[in-house]
Each structure stands twice: as structure tokens, then as C-alpha cells.
Amino acid sequence: MYSPIIGLTYKLLGNINGVKGIYLRGSLSRGDGVLGRSDIDLTILIEKFKNEKEEARLLYILYLKYKILKQIFPVMGEWEIFDEEEFYSFHLKNTHRGYLAKYWKEIKGSKPIFKIERVEKRDILTRIAWWIFETLPSAYWRGNLHTLLNAYLETYALFEYLKGESADPFPSRNKLLEDLVRKEKERELRELYSLRKRSFLFVEGRKKKRLAGWLYRKIIQRVFENRENLSCKPFLMEIPLIIKSFKPFHYLPRNYLLISSEKDFFQMERDIILAPLPLFLPYLRFLSPWEIESLRKYNPGITAISSSPFLREYLRTLAVMKELRYHIFKCLPVSLFFYFQLRLYLEKDFVAPDLTELIQEYRGNFSDFDFLSSLRGKDLILKGYPLMKKTLKDLLRNSKNS
Q1: Residue 378 confidence class, pLDDT cut points 50, 70, 90
Q2: What CA–CA distance (Å, rounded) separates 8 from 40?
Q3: 13 or 352, which is more confident
Q4: What's the pLDDT tens digit per position in 148-166?
Q5: How far apart, in whole angstroms, are the C-alpha atoms of residue 36 and residue 33?
């Protein structure tokens, strides 16, 4: 199923000027893909353009190709696009990503070798936090057994690595599942192993709910049991909660918060994760830095925590432009809001997690709001991206020098 799609992708992208390399990453590159469930995730290396408009033209061509492939093949996943400087800096300093690069399959260009033998603890904790806060709640509510099982297997391997009981933080999920089925001898694992072989098709509703709950509880229990390896003392538990108002985060008590996804707030009764701020912060700093400042408004226990690590992290990895391109491919308007947030933060030291407040603040501070907000589709890439990239590059350069 996947090989013809990858072959067509090469035909569409392989001869485009400016594209230096195309690499298949993720579970498919490691041989752990599940037919019909795993996405085709690509890392694309482009040349480093001196002119932002030339890069924007290339991005627009890639964007059109992506839209075509995604419409025909829903399993087409994320495209991460780096220029050469960002590419090597990002994967050398984000050791979890650089480590996994050895499993990539080259579609075009020679496979890069980063020679990372050990994944840093900070990157392991960020990955665990990503599973717990970004992925676990929504996968649980949707009953997505494929994603929940991946979270179960990877968090198991990561904690084994932190404890020094495994030399590989990202072993084959297929082999790990087989080993755990033999070792743990739990009925649920045997059922999940069988369902995975069948791509989780035709799972009866009550069975899906039961297995989703089992995986969810096991992952939370694992985090609690490994609290000494988290550089903090987290306490996680499941609690029943009736949600009567829509808010992205509910805070209680002093140093804990409840995590859920927006879709869940339309359900009246759910089990929600009660999570510690110390484990949540690595996730926020890396993926949602604006929330660190907003947390202060609700929880005095983190008033001493600064959001500056986010700026240092981005400068360390040179990931800003990669994120901007990622948002363009995911949803064009979102790339604009990402730019508004980042510019306000870098230039005015202002954080506005609320969309209305963000727009009002940006409009009041910068003269390009009307121009950027009027752009649609093709123009947002060809005219908006060059302006956004040049502005952010200048701000980051000034921040680094200072």
C-alpha cells in the first residue's frame, strides 16, 4: 500500500529545483508501521536561499504537491521542511530526533549521519511530556487504540532507558510488544497484539472502550511509578469531573492542573489527568511556550518560572522557520497566528494566549497587520512568508547577539 504512494511522491518532488533531500521518517521507516493506520511522515531538505521570495516560491510548489497527495492519500502525514543550516543544527542538538534519523529511509539524497549515540535526558523528558499531554487525552477519548498502544510502548522503552535498563530508547515497537506479551502475560496485551495485526479493524465498541481504559491507566501508573526519574515528584491520578464551563485548562490545587482536549469539554463526565506542573513545563517550553506566562495568572506557584528558556531553546535548535513552514502546510491561517505570537513575544515581551487579545495587541503594535491579515492562499505564502521570515530572522539575530 505505502510503496506506490512513496514512489509517486518521489515523482512529484524529486526533480523540483531546490529540493536537496527527501527522507521517510517515523514508524514506517523503522519497520513498525501498521497498515492503514501509520502515516507517511517526511523530512524534506531544501537549499538555503539568500532571497526569502525564492524560498517562498519553492514552498508554494511543495504546498500544492502536498495538497494533491493529501487529498488522494489520507495517510500522507506531516512534512517537515528544513534548509541545510537548520537541518543539521536541529538534529544534532535535539538528540532524540537526531538519534532516530539513523532509521530514516532516503527517497532522494544520501541519508544524513548525525552520530548521536545517546539521547539526552532533557529530550527524553520532553518526549514523555509530549505523549502525556499532547497525545494521551485525545487518543483516550477517541478510543484510538493504535495511538494509545504506541504511547504505551514508547513510554515503557523511554523509562527503561532512563533507569539504565535498556541501551536503546526507541527499540522496534513490534519486537517490544512481542516481548511484553511474553513477559507480562496480561490478557489485554494479547488482545492488543492480535488487533494490531489486523490494523485495529472491526473492534466492537465496548471492547475498544475497555482496552483504551486499560492502556490509559497503565501509562499513568507507569509515570507515577517512575517519578524519581523525572527530576520532580509528580503525582498523577484519574478523577471524575463534571465540566460546566469551557476552558482549555482547569487549575487545582496549587501546583497541579487538569489536562484534557477541547473536544472533551462537550462531554459531561470524564476521567481527567491530574498532572504536576514540573512535568508539564518541558512540554510547554518546547511546544506551547505562550502558556507558561498564562499559567502565572492562575497559579502563583510558578511565579518564579521564566518563559526565557523557550527563546533559548529556539535559538539553540534554529527551529523557528521549520515551525513556520510546518504551520503553513498544516493550516495557512495558523501560520499567521504563530507569527503574531512569536513576534509579540520576541519584540515586545508580550504573551497573548487568547486569540482576540493576540489580534488586538498585534494590531496596536505593528503596522503590517492589515496587509498580512488580508492575504489568502497563494498570496499568504508568496507575499506573507518572505516578510514573516525576514522579520523573525532579524529579531532572532538581535536576541542572540544581546
Answers
A1: very high
A2: 12
A3: 13
A4: 999 999 999 999 999 999 9
A5: 9
Residue with cell 527503561: 160
The x, y and z cell numbers of residue 19, run together, are 529540493
Q: What DSSP element (H or E) covers 40?
A: strand 40-46
Whole-angstrom CA distances from 214 to 130, 145, 189 are 20, 10, 10
Indicate the helix (H) or strand (E) that contains 123. Answer: helix 121-129
For the segment 386-390, the average pLDDT, to the nearest whole number, is 94
For 95-152, the pLDDT digits (tens) are 999 999 999 999 999 888 888 889 988 788 778 878 877 788 778 878 899 999 999 9
Whole-angstrom distance, CA of residue 172 vs CA of residue 31: 8
Kindly state the cell numbers that stand for 90: 536541529
What number of CA atoms fall less than 13 Å from residue 302's CA on the CB side?
25
Angle at 399 between CA 396 and CA 402, to 5 degrees: 150
DSSP letters spanning 285-346: HHH-THHHHHHHHH-GGGTT--SHHHHHHHHHHT-HHHHHHHHHHH-HHHHHHHHHHHHHHH
Backbone angles phi, psi at 108, to 5 degrees: -145, 140
Q: What is the mean pLDDT of residues 247-255?
A: 40
Q: What letter does residue 20 receive in the DSSP assignment?
A: E
> Which phi and psi angles does 33 have, rounded to 5°?
-65, 150
Name the segment(s) of the chain with CATH classification 3.30.460.
2-108
CA nearest neighbour of 155 among 223, 229, 71: 223
Per CATH, the number for 2-108 is: 3.30.460
Task: Work out the number of other CB atoms within 10 angstroms of the CB of residue 20.
Answer: 15
Q: pTM value?
A: 0.82
Question: Does residue 382 contact residue 60 with C-beta atoms inside 8 Å?
Answer: yes
pLDDT top residue among 229 and 231: 229
CA count, 13 A, side-chain hemisphere, 101: 25
User: Cα-atom radius of gyration of the chain, to the nearest Å?
Assistant: 22
In the chain, the N- to C-terminal Cα span, in Å, equals 52
- Would you state the pLDDT for residue 262? 38
Query: Could you give the CA distance from residue 32 to residue 34 in angstroms, rounded to a whole number?
Result: 7
d(CA 245, CA 61): 43
